[in-house]
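Hey, resending since the last one bounced:
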Amino acid sequence: MSNHEVNGSSGREEGFMGWHPGVAASLKGRGKAVSNRLPCPLTLRFLLLALPFFTGCGPNRDAGGKDPEEPRAVPRVVSLVPSLSELIIALGVGENLAARTDFDTHPELLDLPSVGGGLAPSFEGMLGLGIEMVLMPGGRAAGTLGPRLQELGIEVHVLPTNTVPDLYEAVIRLGELFGVSPAADSLSRQMKKEINEIVELVEGRDPVPVMYVVAAEPPMTTGEGTFIDELIRVAGGRNVFADAGFQWPSVSFESILSRNPKLLVWPRGDYETVSLESLT
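The C-alpha cells again:
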C-alpha cells in the first residue's frame, strides 16, 4: 500500500473512541454501501463493544453458585485504556474508578473527571484527583509513562491488551487487584465459551471482508496484530487492512473503496444509534 493511502501508529490503544458519521457520509457520497448491522454468518456481537465482552455474565455469583468474596479496599484508580475500564465495570467494581480518559464512552464513566488522553494523560490532573493507581496497556507508552507515574508516587500496573489471550489474562489480574477473583474466573470462562461457540458457528463459511472503524478524521482502522483483528478472524471475517503494516493505520477514503469491505463495524458509544437513514 502506498504512503498516500495509509499512515500508521503502533500504539493507538486509546483509539477506541467510537464511530463518527462523517465516515459513513463520505463513503455514501462515493457510492459505498454502509452498515452498522451484522448479517449472518458474521457474528460479531462481541466485536461491537470494545468491551465489556460479555456483561451478561455478571459478578453476582461465582461458577459454583456461591456468594463472591467481598471486594477489597483499593486505591483511587484510573484506567488509561477503555477496554480495561469496561472490563472493570463488567466485574462489578466500576465504583473504584475515580477518573476516565477522553476516549471512555461507557455511560457509567461519563460523569467522571477526565485525565486527558490515554497515551499522554495529565499528571497534574491525576495528582489533583488523588489518583493512587494507574492501569495501562503494554507497548512503548508503558516504558516511558509508567516510570514517570511511579516517580510521582502512583502505583502502576501494566496489562497488555493486544490479543484475546491477553484479555483473558487481564480479567484474571483485575480480579486479583480488586479482590473479585471468583467473578473474574467466571467472566473469563464465559468469554472463552462464547468465542468457541462463534468459531463453531462460522466454521466452513467464506470470510466476510470487514473494516473496523476506530476514528474518523482521518479514517483510522486496525491492522494485523491487535485483538480486534483477531476477533474479526475468529468471528468469520477478513480484515481488509490486515496488511497495512501498522496496528492502527490512518487510511484514505480511496483505499477503503479499493479494498471494498462488505461490512463496516464500529464500537458502541456516542454514535451507536446512527442509521443509514440519518445519514441520507
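Helices lie at 21-29, 82-90, 123-128, 140-151, 164-178, 181-202, 227-234, 253-259.

Sorry for the duplicate.
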